[in-house]
Amino acid sequence: MNILETRHISKHFADTTALDDVSVAVGEGRILGLLGPNGAGKTTLIRIINQITAPDAGEVLFGGERLSPKHIASIGYLPEERGLYRKMKVGEQVVYLARLKGVSRAEAVRRSKYWFEKFEISSWWNRTVEELSKGMQQKVQFIATVIHEPPFFIFDEPFSGFDPINANLLKTEILRLREKGASIIFSTHNMASVEEVCDDIVLINRSRKLMEGPIGEVKRRFRRHVYEVEYTAEERVDWAQWRPDLCEPEQEEAEGETRRVALRLHPEVSSNELIAALLEKVQLLAFREILPSMNDIFISQVQRMQKGGDNA
What we know:
By secondary structure, the protein is an alpha/beta fold. The radius of gyration is 24 Å and the shape is globular. The chain has 2 domains: 2-220, 3-Layer(aba) Sandwich (Rossmann fold), CATH 3.40.50; 224-289, Alpha-Beta Plaits, CATH 3.30.70. Helix 5 (164-179) links the parallel strand 7 and strand 8 (183-187). The chain has 9 helices and 14 strands. The longest helix is centred in the middle third of the chain and has 16 residues, at 164-179. The mean pLDDT is 92. Helix 2 (90-100) crosses helix 3 (105-118) and helix 2 (90-100) packs parallel to helix 4 (134-146). The strands form 3 sheets. The chain has a 6-stranded mixed β-sheet.
């Protein structure tokens, strides 16, 4: 079941089309990576889901109901443009923001202290936001986003400005939210974090949806039939001349007592045929398919659209 669906959403600003018939679904307990270059329409879609602006056409459903103001408290939104009150004390501010989402004061204080201890920032409670570094402010903003414990979250570039240790801290907490049943939209340009965090992706470019699906399925869709072969280093093989009827070598490297080569199969050849031929040639140590990274897929599909190619 989907917790959120946007159906045929279109949005125009003067002569600019921000979204053109975009339909997106977020499954319950899943993390959807919302991908696209700058200006693709991601921010507009997020603002429509948050009811900051309205679509010109189409509808948004939340929990099977048409999206309305009553659903605001069911969404936790971490915007890319952070927005804390700089003169306000940190603890007071988090409690205040929780109260706005319907949490009682006593419960807001309890949850705030829990998160401050979890992030080891209890000493910040009585400091003002302007005293904090950008990274510290982002931690506070994250707490403010999750403190009312909604079933649905939108994280827009959540790791921006974080060092690797704190980025990993947030990644762990985002995955923990999913484990507890939350559904999440994860908007980012960081393709490595997409592969680490997301279950599904949707790619938007030039206001249109370019592709979507579970990450594993998307990567298989763009497979190049390239396999990495690991074998003992004492063996030497001229891969350019070996079995050109089966495959072509792409790269080869040695490491310690092993060697590795990437072989691209011809379309009509199966991996089993390749393995059988390899067993007759080398002492095979490992064999695996090399699937394209999300970064490779992202770049290739955006470039393809820019050159006027058909959608994937």
